[in-house]
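Dear colleague,

Thank you for sharing your sequence with our group. We've completed the structure prediction you requested, and as agreed, I am returning the results in plain text so they can be pasted directly into your records. Please verify that the sequence below matches your submission; if there's any discrepancy, let me know and we will rerun it promptly.
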Amino acid sequence: MKKPLILSSALALVIGAAACEEPSHPPLGGVAITTSAPTIEGDFTTVDGWNVKYSRFIVNVSAITIAGYDGVITASATSQLVDQTQPPTKLLLTSANRIARAWEDVSFEIGPTTAETEPLEPVTEVDRDTLAVSRASIFVEGTMTRGNDVKSFRWSLSPRTRYSACSARVNGATLPGLLVPENGADTGDILMDGTVLFFDNLATRGHVLRGDPIAAADLNKDGVVQLTELANVPLDEARKSTGLYGPIAGVDDLAAFLNAQARSIVVSFRGEGDCRITPVDEAP
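Please find the predicted structure tokens below.
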């Protein structure tokens, strides 16, 4: 009869000791992803004298993931439509009470709009439904003006692109992703640049802003440059403007060139950093 009594006393001691210990919690912080686009909010001038002004520049950020190299995902967001002509910086993802640690693997995608995509003001549900029909990733509307010559454009572009391995120089060192401090927060801003659609080269160097080949695509002289008209301009013809325009496999006309160039709309991550750009069909 004494043995069970001894076991019960020992168990009571263990329980009592455990009750006196404070529970252990990891330090917490917050994460956020924003996007900004100062060049889209204003206007710019091409080397051949066209002043370009966007009235709408809608981008579908179709997915965002913040994770660690260990594969743990701390935050994610689904498809959102933003109009980059509208200041200020737009908030795409925010999450508090995240473990304070390095979250090295930040990635996101720009992809087709669907019926489930969330429009962020001033983008409307009507805009979303219209872009979902064409499965557009990027919609741009604006004008290009030189003297008394005015051309308008409305282009629904459909590149599907993944941006991964995002990193930046922070305090003199390369920082992959985000680093969440205890009781603090870290934010990564995705900077987009609307001028890239008027670059005359897909390479990151050696390009200039050029408008003549795009304006010349308005063959019916109605003052509107349609994407279908750009598709009828071979790159060989565009090169007569002294622009570079390629070459790249599978890109043979100005419409295809514009879609390929749109993949470069993301120009930096959290200041001077960058991300790896991969067409979704080629992404691992």
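Summary note from our side: The first strand starts at residue 28 and ends at 36.

Kind regards,
the structure core
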